[in-house]
Recover the amino acids of this structure.
């Protein structure tokens, strides 16, 4: 089971490619956009901590745009690299922590739920990284929710919250992110077990049957 928005990955990669070519013509390196995404995440965290939620939404959207553009620019310029991929994943984790930290400091979300969500997001990413590091899985981008879905839940909570001031909409959104993240971590672990154990069993059967 792939994350919902991951199914449209090929579409938005193609749609963003012209923007990648534009950035390439401007001489912008993909890693510059990755760092810019991190800067926007820090700004988003600060704005959210000050309860400037509308501007926080704007900063999160700019963060997401820069995150899309770094990949598009890497593909358009032919500068995609393993280091760039690692840098992108690392800055994504920092970005998630900054945004959640800002929500926690705002006082609108209880610290226990913010930490619950942060831990889930980190574990979902960690399971994927460890699974792919075995070299036996081309990708472990499976599960209920990827990064885009989780940011979407947060944005939904931030946008809807002003219309229901008497309800803890934003806290519910953070809890939903935490639950989705932990479910995704478990799904990725089970998927990894299925692929690795199944692969080992197949090799054993081939060996016993004398098939190369």
């Amino acid at each position: 089971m792939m994350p919902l928005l991951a199914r449209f990955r090929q579409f938005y990669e193609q749609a963003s490619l012209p923007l990648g070519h534009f950035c390439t013509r401007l001489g912008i390196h993909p890693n510059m956009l990755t760092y810019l995404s991190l800067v926007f995440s820090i700004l988003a965290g600060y704005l959210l901590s000050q309860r400037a939620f509308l501007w926080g939404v704007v900063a999160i959207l700019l963060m997401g745009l820069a995150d899309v553009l770094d990949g598009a620019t890497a593909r358009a310029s032919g500068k995609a690299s393993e280091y760039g991929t690692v840098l992108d994943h690392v800055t994504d984790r920092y970005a998630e922590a900054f945004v959640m930290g800002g929500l926690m400091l705002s006082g609108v979300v209880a610290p226990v739920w913010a930490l619950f969500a942060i831990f889930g997001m980190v574990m979902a990413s960690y399971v994927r990284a460890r699974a792919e590091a075995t070299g036996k899985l081309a990708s472990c981008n499976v599960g209920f929710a990827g990064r885009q879905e989780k940011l979407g839940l947060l944005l939904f909570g931030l946008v809807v919250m002003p219309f229901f001031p008497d309800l803890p909409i934003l806290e519910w959104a953070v809890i939903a992110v935490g639950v989705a993240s932990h479910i995704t971590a478990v799904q990725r672990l089970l998927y990894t077990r299925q692929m690795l154990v199944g692969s080992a069993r197949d090799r054993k059967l081939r060996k016993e049957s004398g098939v190369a």
User: Anything to note?
Assistant: The two ends are 31 Å apart (CA to CA). The CA atoms of residues 15 and 40 lie 23 Å apart. Residues 169-209 form the longest helix (41 residues). The chain is about 80% helix and 0% strand.
